[in-house]
Amino acid sequence: MWARVARLGRWALVGGHRAFATEVCRGGGRVTAEVIAHLERLALVDFGSREAVARLEKAIAFAERLHAVDTERVEPLESVLEDRCLYLRPDNVVEGNCVEEILQNSHRVVEEYFVAPPGNLSLPEME
Amino acid sequence: MAALMLRFCCAGRRWTLSCVDGAFRQGRGPLTGSMSSRIRGQRSVAQHSFTTAQKLKKGEREWAAVVGLEIHAQISSNSKLFSGSQVHFAAPPNSLVSFFDASLPGTLPVLNRRCVEAAVMTGLALNCHINKKSLFDRKHYFYADLPAGYQITQQRLPIAVNGSLAYGVCIRSQHSQVANKTVRIKQIQLEQDSGKSLHDDLRAQTLIDLNRAGVGLLEVVLEPDMSCGEEAAMAVRELQLILQALGTSQANMADYEIQRQINELESGGEILNETRSFDYKLGCTVSMRDKEGKQDYRFMPEPNLPPLLLFDSESLPAGADPQQVINIDQLREHLPELPSQTREKLMLQYGLRPEYSFTLLNEVGLLEFFHNVMKDTKAKPHTVTNWVLNRFLGSLKQHSLAVSESPVTPSALAELLDLLDGRAISSSAAKQVFQLLWRSPGKTPAQIVSEQKLELLQDREALEQLCRATLEGHAHVVMDLKKGNPRAINKLIGLVCKAALNRADPTLIKEILERQLSS
């Protein structure tokens, strides 16, 4: 499965991170509870129910049909903007300086700082 | 994979708020599976994570320690990497934040030309291959000071790859000679900085300031070619000097911070092959194995940015708007003088030894001081170097002063060296004058010399008498000398010098004594 994925290029591995397709293919179409938990943690989503996971599996299976396309010796499309020019902005200060507007959306504000709950992890005990 | 993550911040006021991000932060830091957090501020440095393989039990297979580094340098620019808000240290919180920086919906990144130029110049200075096409990606992780939930970086195809950084290491065994070493540069990439978090443990909340969010960073990844902390420190120091010479980053970081962290590494002892995180507060490394599983950044191409295309003189499209194209060759032509080139020039121009040129460049302002003294004095480079690197630098260190705070000006030192060179005073008198100059900066060397009556005795007859008197008064030393002890003559010279209140030239004394003894 890994070799097949590599050749097709469409599901090219980026930075060594696993494509979901391979996980599903390995498991014979099922997304394991481990993968769900991993995804939930990474993307901060809640799959909630078995139905949601089933829908995910169906979506992946649907996309699998792309494997039928022969992309041998075809360069992957990285961006639909690949023919566009990347505009370069001059190094001038033209925005900012709008504290009130920026803070407007925040639920809690303390002395012009946004307030967030403490960290993603609990800190280890330190003296 | 590599490791230490060090951070250069730009100059400005010291940041006094308590600002520790905490020892462990999921998703922070440049490496997959690693966690690091930062202490941001003036002269602050990132916490870092590193991977080393170290010696196992004695008798087992020998492991060699390898150290790799990832260095983030804040780009010196007026505005941020993808937005037009200002880059400035110590501004009121959230005052330098645009809608894009706050990640409000509907905003798009617009690339800053200056940041691209900075990256290309740095790549050229580090002998990298500049990728004429490079791509931007999104690196996802959740953290309060990253409003978008992702950082725009260049993971797949960075702007520069495969370079090298040449640096010098002191060979302790050989009288501080310098050995030249090289470390390979894996890549240089452009990426966004995140905001700042301040932790209020008392109220269990985190305060977020996004002034820094979106500022351009250069990430320089060094291959694990360095075999110890000292080499890593020297490599980083050289990189710092290069970035400062290029003007691409102010690269200010307290040297003691590097050294301290390197020392921690070196005294690590038996380090297991694992990823560890350096806890700044604890001052030691802590294993990360028991932390949550692998961090997956879910890299994806940045859909809002086309590939970044660079040109050289050959490929430059005709009639292109010069504001919209970047010519690598043009940037190469205008590269400022790099530290290694400055050292070469010093060695050629003044015949300095390599280790002296290293020291001259290592200390802020010292090279300029040296040049100013050379300009004003007739003394030989060898003498000037000796005085600047030993006496002057030594005094600075003793009083913990920077070159800019020196009580002795270059012209004062030049004048002193002229007096010495013209044999108006002896070298021991010169040392005395220097010390007095240090304490009374208003006076000139000439003033001090006349006040303290340190001029060399011009009266030959008086000197001859002094010599004769010394010989008579110290018969046992004379005997010693006649017996064949070569050091006895130095003792006699010293005695005459003292008697002459440091106003006699030792070489002349020696000549007179020898003549008197042989007669």
From TrEMBL, chain A:
It catalyses: L-glutamyl-tRNA(Gln) + L-glutamine + ATP + H2O = L-glutaminyl-tRNA(Gln) + L-glutamate + ADP + phosphate + H(+). InterPro entries: Asp/Glu-ADT_sf_sub_c, GatC. SUPFAM superfamilies: Glu-tRNAGln amidotransferase C subunit. It is found in: Mitochondrion. The keyword Metal-binding does not apply. Keywords: ATP-binding, Ligase, Mitochondrion, Nucleotide-binding, Protein biosynthesis. The keyword Phosphoprotein does not apply. Its EC number is 6.3.5.-. Belongs to the GatC family. Allows the formation of correctly charged Gln-tRNA(Gln) through the transamidation of misacylated Glu-tRNA(Gln) in the mitochondria. The reaction takes place in the presence of glutamine and ATP through an activated gamma-phospho-Glu-tRNA(Gln). HAMAP family: GatC. Subunit of the heterotrimeric GatCAB amidotransferase (AdT) complex, composed of A (QRSL1), B (GATB) and C (GATC) subunits. This is Glutamyl-tRNA(Gln) amidotransferase subunit C, mitochondrial.
TrEMBL record, chain B:
It is an enzyme of class 6 (ligase). Keywords: ATP-binding, Ligase, Mitochondrion, Nucleotide-binding, Protein biosynthesis, Transit peptide. Its main location: mitochondrion. Its EC number is 6.3.5.-. InterPro entries: Asn/Gln-tRNA_amidoTrfase_suB/E, Asn/Gln-tRNA_Trfase_suB/E_cat, Asn/Gln_amidotransferase, Asn/Gln_tRNA_amidoTrase-B-like, GatB, GatB_Yqey_C_2, Gln-tRNA_amidoTrfase_suB_CS, Gln_synth/guanido_kin_cat_dom. Residues 368-517 form the Asn/Gln amidotransferase domain. It holds the Pfam family GatB_Yqey. Subunit of the heterotrimeric GatCAB amidotransferase (AdT) complex, composed of A (QRSL1), B (GATB) and C (GATC) subunits. Belongs to the GatB/GatE family. GatB subfamily. Allows the formation of correctly charged Gln-tRNA(Gln) through the transamidation of misacylated Glu-tRNA(Gln) in the mitochondria. The reaction takes place in the presence of glutamine and ATP through an activated gamma-phospho-Glu-tRNA(Gln). This is Glutamyl-tRNA(Gln) amidotransferase subunit B, mitochondrial. It comes from Erinaceus europaeus. The lineage of its organism: Eukaryota, Metazoa, Chordata, Craniata, Vertebrata.
